[in-house]
Amino acid sequence: MHDGVSQGKYTVGLGQSKMGFCSDQEDINSLCLTVVQHLIERNNISYNDIGRLEVGTETIIDKSKSVKTVLMQLFAECQNSDIEGVDTINACYGGTAALFNAVNWIESSHWDGRYALVVAGDIAVYASGNARPTGGAGAVAMLLGPNAPLVFERGTRSTYMQHAYDFYKPNMMSEYPTVDGKLSIECYLNALDHCYALYKKKFNVNCAGGVGENFTLDAVDAVLFHSPYCKLVQKSVGRLLLNDFLANPMLSSRNGLFASLENFKNLKLSETYFDREVEQACLIASRDVYQQKTFPYLLLANQVGNMYTASLFGGLASFISKQNLKDIVGKRILMFSYGSGFASSMFCLSVANGSPSLGHLLDSFTNLTQRLGSRQKVDPATFAEIMNLREKTSHMAPYSPVCQIENLFPGTWYLLCVDEKHRRKYERKN
User: Residue 164 to residues 333, 335, 395: CA-CA distances in angstroms?
Assistant: First the structure.
C-alpha cells in the first residue's frame, strides 16, 4: 500500500495498471520533438513535404511561445519555413481541434498538396493525494494527406460546448490543476449525451442508406473515448447504450441486450448522472459491447494513464495495434473527444480499401505492447520524489536537469538546460 490506500483502489477503482510520467529531463517540447522526428523517419518523408504543423496541448511552459515554433528547429536543415499552424489550447480537447483544423486546411482552397502534421501531447500531473494516480504523459503525431488508410466520415461530426469550471489551471506557476471531481464527471457525461444525440441525428440524415434507418452502436466496430481513467470509459459505453434505448424503447422487445434497461424508459438523461441503479443496469447491458468494441483498445490508457490531448488518439493507436491486414478494411471507429471547460466532439473514421500505406500503418504498431513493457519501472516513493523535483524546478531559471539520460530510449529528445532568460535547449539521445 502507498498513501494509505487499500489494495485495488487504483487498479480496480480506476481501472489503471500502470502510469507513465516524466522526470525533469523531459517537458512538452521534448515529447513533441521526439514523436515528430520519429514519424518523419519511420515514414521516410522529407521535412519539405509538410505544409501545416499544428500542436494540441494544455501543458504550458511559456505563455507566448508555442510548442510548434520549438518544433521548427527540426525543419531548419531543409530550410522549410512555409508551414502553417500554431498551438491549439482547451484542456484535453486541443488535439482534436488541431486535427479538425488540419482536415479543414486540406479540404480548403489554401491546400498546396503537402501533408499536414498534427501533434497532441501533454504531461498530466497532480498534487499528491487521490488524484495523482489519474495522471500520465505522452504524445502522438499524426500525418494527414491523400490516399490515407483512415478516412473521416463526412457530414456527421457533432460538437457540444458549454461554460463550466470542472477542471482548470488558474495558477500559471504550477503544473497542477484545480478540479471539481463530481462536476467533471457530470460535464463529461452531459457532453457525451449531447454529442451522441447530434451525431445520430446527422448520421440518420446523411448516411442511413448504408446501415439502417436509425444509428446504434451496432453500426460501428470500435468505440473510443477520451480516457481520464478507464472506469469512466466503461461507464460511458453503458451510457451510449442507454441513449440508444431511450431513443427507441421498443428495442427492448426486439433485442435482449436492452432487457435490463426496461424500467428506465421514462427517465430523463440529465437525471441519471449519479444514479447507481441506472449505472449498474447500463454496465450489465453493455458488458459485451464494452468487451468487444472498447476494452481491447484501452491498452495505452491502462498502461500510460491520462495523456490529456493525446488520450483519444492513444485509443486509436491501441485499436490499430490489435488489427491485421485481412480483417481491418471497412471497419468504422466512433471517436468521442472531451476537454474540460468544456468542449466536446464526436466523429467517425473508417478504414479505407486500397490505401497503399495501410500495411505500413499496421506494421508501425506491431510491437506496441513490447515497447510499453520495456519502460523503466520505479517504486511509488521514487515516483513521489521525482514529482517533488518537478514541482520545485518546472519554472526555475537557470536550471540543468539532474536526472540521468540513461533511462531514456534512443532517439528521445530531452531538455539539456534552461538559461537565465528561460530559454530552453534540447538534444537528442543517440
Answer: 29, 22, 28
CB 335 within 8 A of CB 222: no
Of the residues 54, 153, 194, 226, only one is catalytic, namely 226
Mean local confidence (pLDDT), 399-419: 96
Among 144, 94, 86, 83, which Cα is nearest to 121's? 94
Among the options 22, 32, 92, 187, which is catalytic?
92
DSSP-derived 3-state class of residue 349? strand
Report field, pTM of the whole predicted structure over 0.85? yes
Is 92 noted as a catalytic residue in this protein?
Answer: yes
CA distances from 77 to 69, 91, 168, 210 (A): 15, 33, 39, 48
226 is catalytic: yes
Residue 105 has pLDDT above 80, yes or no: yes
Catalytic residue among 26, 54, 58, 153: 58
195 is catalytic: no
Across 15-24, 205-214, 235-244, 366-375, least confident range: 205-214
Confidence of residue 108 (pLDDT cuts 50, 70, 90): very high
